[in-house]
Amino acid sequence: MLEADGLRKRYGDTVALDGVSLKVGPGEMFGFVGANGAGKTTTMRIIMGVLSADGGEVRWNGKQAGHEIRRRFGYMPEERGLYAKMRVAEQIEYFGTLAGMSAQAAHRSSDALIERLGLTERRDDHVDTLSLGNQQRVQLAVALIHEPEVLVLDEPFSGLDPIAVDALAGVLAERVSAGVPVVFSSHQLDLVEQLCDSVGIIKGGRMIAGGTVAELRARESRKRLRMVVTGAAPGWIDRLPGEIIAKTDRPPQGDPAVEDHDSYDEVILAPSDDQEALRVAAQAGRVRHFAWQEPSLAEIFREVVA
Ligand SMILES: Nc1ncnc2c1ncn2[C@@H]1O[C@H](COP(=O)(O)OP(=O)(O)OP(=O)(O)O)[C@@H](O)[C@H]1O
Questions:
Q1: For residue range 224-270, what is the model confidence (pLDDT) as tens digits?
Q2: How far apart are CA 8 and CA 206, in angstroms?
Q3: Residue to mutate (ligand 1; options 7, 15, 33, 42; most atoms within 8 A of CB)
Q4: Within 13 Å and on the Cβ side, how many CA atoms surround 213?
Q5: I need a surface site. Which of 69, 72, 202, 261 has the fewest CB within 10 A?
Q6: Considering 194, 218, 242, which residue would you say is the last residue of a domain?
Q7: Interface pTM (ipTM) of the complex?
């Protein structure tokens, strides 16, 4: 279990972290989300020991993390950190030896990662001639070369095309299934929702929400109903009990259930009385859809950071 407990950090008058805690268990993928400047990078740097905290502690399997323990962590820093003029394979192996591997072991591990990450044709290219996506693959290989027990990745998916996202996500999923805790930050909330077992939302240096996406959903204050009603006379929406979050009278293109002459209304409602909402809709027209709608992580995020 990776634990950060009550991390504090100031830069002059700026309070960057005000008691940040998180826990990531074996084989858990933790998504770290927050607005720009919320404190994600500072937290990850402190976990990795590249920045010292003013207070709080980082623990790995119950022990305070010092230099020896952190050597077994893998890290993708936000500022990246590859040697531009080194060749791909040479670079990955070099970082392996820095992490304490023998040259032979680093070579073997680098070869396997190069193949796994689709870099075989680039292995002898200088890093500065690679596309952003390929540089990021090299950076991930550098983080993985010594088979780390923990992975901490600062925005590993930023700027990547969908194929590169899939390649990285596939490799991370492998590490997770091997029992490695993975922490990564991202502004791509759809991706976080898709990949992560748990999520932490940070704002102004404090963790303001955390848990599985399902738990965050359950805590979301406003439950929403999505309804589609056709053939209703104008004005019925005003009779719905609760707050209208969104509405449209434009049917989705090519929906065979909607006939040309029918009116179409799609409403997202935060109801004060769901049964009354159903009665109003049924009296107004044909109810084609009436169901609770799960908010996406992006909607939950907007709600909790507001
Ligand atoms: N070296 C520094 N000197 C002074 N202030 C800093 C320094 N590094 C970070 N900060 C401040 O600390 C706060 C947290 O920054 P941090 O980089 O951790 O946020 P972040 O969540 O990673 O943001 P982003 O999503 O933009 O990467 C911000 O107010 C930032 O301006």
A1: 899 999 999 999 999 999 999 889 998 887 666 666 667 899 999 99
A2: 10
A3: 42
A4: 21
A5: 261
A6: 218
A7: 0.95
